[in-house]
């Protein structure tokens, strides 16, 4: 338990439905904070498509340094069709993840019986993906030559280091150790991406020796997508690289009741910089501003935030409120704010 | 229609269940060939784990050049746990795909009502993935430094060229044009892999101008996995890079009745070298030699082979026989050879 009573929070609503779902997450955060005797002092940062159109800026370094001073970051969603693809993703979202050394991208998946799944017989699903967050094909280490000509060549370099792989693998083992099933699955593609894949495999094998209670297995990423559909209950903790983690967690969200429920934490386990919490879903510009978005993923991300700050009871209160709310869902659509209100009331109750 | 009557076929059974399922594919191929007045002269190549253990060879260049002289190649599966991961995949399977310029890796997906799907409500699913086969992260253009030390760094380079992207995109558009729904979806990750992603996107946009009847859309690879689970009926032709195609086609197989039915063609559309046909599934060493494997994917791969050689009636006869066989499946297990016998009999009947 933390003894700290006041926390500073940087808030980036972002684009599309980002601000709407973030507002509900903050509503719930405030409601539980009041009950648990803590306060969040918020600073909002106006970052995203509007800012870029107005000023050409994505995330100026001075603002990044301000954000860095906070205890945690809550983010909505980033990206808009009016901005060239990649500008906001690389210049804002990934800049935050990389600069703040969010090397553990934590993404839990769970099937709530009342929500169901597109799968006919999903079984009991409750696993977490530990996605590496600061290396792999996401490093931006590529380029292009002779762009727009028939002789164009474009490369993307996946960079993997023993330093980067070992720290995330250790984190994943520690999480598996704390879970009842104590199982860890490495997902990679080491029969093709042999250099990176063998580094991952050797690292997992080495760290496994220190965790004799953990059952370890390995799946190629293509086979992992099959099991996520045919036998998702087989998974407990999955550890994988940045790109495979991106793909697997959207698939995991799809089989477990939808992207509207998928929360994530971009975590710096060494606490040398604030961690950042955001729903897995994107900015969904087609439904933005219409109170149609489900804020549950953003609200569950706020629970991960509380947990990271050591406010475990407050986190559990949000999770219980969400579970209760989900169990009563009838399928009749509610406005974004109505869902937030209902969960806030329960969480504070 | 082809007027050629005799074809040469290079056969690589490979590892695990590879030889078993290949035997059934050949049985069916022979049965329809007899009826349709064509002959396949076969040469078997002893390649795979056993050969590697005995001689250290994966695919000697001289043997590759012999294989190159054939009209087509039928391959079972490659890979065994007794061989370091990547040795056979890179040294045999990918060597064939790259050396023979198999730039179109064609992978159809279809839900047979009688087989069903792990999805509760899949809808009518009938799409084809055109996976690029000679570029992307599969080029083997990576390396590692200081291996086994805490300072290790491993890279994997995805190489994409206008030449390579345009030719596969053109092929995908031509296939979409020949299909009733005339829809093409590009799958990439152009918000993160901006150099490669933008090359793909610009190429699709440019070629689209020549195909005004085709509806074109774009999905990030993570979003594509969601739609494959929540709305697979939305897809007609998917065009994507080598790695994304690997992942999406295993997922596509999973949602459409399993990897036991997924066929593929590694096609050289310019016919400068023989094309190669193989089931999408792996060597499944755990069930090898037990007559437990479903040879249907290998048999359907033989149908793709016939189609590629212009023997469209013979190809259709196999497809019809497989469909009829699948419709009568009761779930009671049949031996690999029994399934092959049943389909061969129907296909020749
Ligand atoms: C928006 C995009 C850059 C991001 C990613 O690829 O990581 C998103 O898909 C996610 O999973 O958080
Ligand atoms: C065996 C492996 C190298 C191969 C690939 O990754 O292409 C397989 O997964 C496939 O899809 O044909």
Automatic annotation (TrEMBL), chains A, B:
One of its GO terms (molecular function) is 3-isopropylmalate dehydrogenase activity. It holds the Pfam family Iso_dh. GO terms for biological process: L-leucine biosynthetic process. PROSITE patterns: IDH_IMDH (PS00470). SUPFAM superfamilies: Isocitrate/Isopropylmalate dehydrogenase-like. Its EC number is 1.1.1.85. Mg(2+) binds at residues 222, 246, 250. NAD(+) binds at residues 282-294. Residues 8-343 form the Isopropylmalate dehydrogenase-like domain. Substrate binds at residues 97, 107, 131, 222. It is found in: Cytoplasm. The record marks 138, 189 as: Important for catalysis. Pathway: Amino-acid biosynthesis; L-leucine biosynthesis; L-leucine from 3-methyl-2-oxobutanoate: step 3/4. It is an enzyme of class 1 (oxidoreductase). It catalyses: (2R,3S)-3-isopropylmalate + NAD(+) = 4-methyl-2-oxopentanoate + CO2 + NADH. Its cofactor is Mn(2+); Mg(2+). It comes from the Bacteria. NCBIfam families: PRK03437.1. Belongs to the isocitrate and isopropylmalate dehydrogenases family. LeuB type 2 subfamily. HAMAP family: LeuB_type2. Catalyzes the oxidation of 3-carboxy-2-hydroxy-4-methylpentanoate (3-isopropylmalate) to 3-carboxy-4-methyl-2-oxopentanoate. The product decarboxylates to 4-methyl-2 oxopentanoate. Homodimer. This is 3-isopropylmalate dehydrogenase. The gene is leuB.
């Amino acid at each position: 338990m933390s003894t700290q009573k006041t926390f500073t929070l940087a808030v980036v609503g972002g684009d599309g439905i980002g601000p709407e779902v973030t507002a509900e997450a903050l509503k719930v955060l405030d409601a539980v904070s009041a009950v648990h005797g803590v306060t969040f002092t918020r600073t909002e940062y106006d970052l995203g498509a509007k800012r870029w159109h107005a000023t050409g800026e994505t995330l100026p370094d001075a603002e990044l340094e301000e954000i860095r001073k906070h205890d945690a970051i809550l983010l909505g969603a980033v990206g808009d069709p009016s901005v060239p693809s990649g500008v906001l993703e690389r210049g804002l979202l990934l800049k935050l993840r990389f600069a703040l050394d969010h090397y553990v991208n934590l993404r839990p998946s769970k099937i709530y019986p009342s929500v169901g799944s597109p799968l006919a017989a999903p079984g009991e699903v409750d696993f977490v993906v530990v996605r590496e967050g600061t290396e792999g094909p996401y490093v931006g280490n590529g380029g292009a030559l002779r762009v727009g000509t028939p002789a164009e060549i474009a490369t993307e370099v996946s960079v993997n280091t023993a330093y980067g792989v070992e720290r995330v693998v250790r984190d994943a083992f520690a999480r598996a150790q704390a879970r009842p099933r104590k199982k860890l699955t490495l997902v990679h593609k080491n029969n093709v991406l042999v250099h990176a894949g063998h580094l991952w495999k050797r690292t997992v094998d080495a760290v496994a020796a220190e965790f004799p209670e953990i059952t370890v297995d390995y799946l190629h990423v293509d086979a992992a997508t099959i099991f996520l559909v045919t036998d998702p209950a087989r998974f407990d903790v999955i550890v994988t690289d940045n790109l495979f983690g991106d793909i697997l967690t959207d698939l995991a969200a799809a089989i477990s009741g939808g992207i509207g429920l998928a929360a994530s934490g971009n975590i710096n386990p060494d606490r040398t910089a604030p961690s950042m919490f955001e729903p897995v879903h994107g900015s969904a510009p087609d439904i933005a501003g219409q109170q149609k978005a489900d804020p549950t993923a953003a609200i569950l991300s706020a629970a991960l935030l509380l947990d990271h700050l050591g406010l475990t009871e407050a986190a559990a209160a949000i999770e219980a409120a969400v579970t209760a709310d989900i169990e009563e869902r009838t399928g009749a659509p509610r406005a974004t704010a109505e869902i937030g209100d209902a969960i806030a009331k329960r969480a504070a109750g």
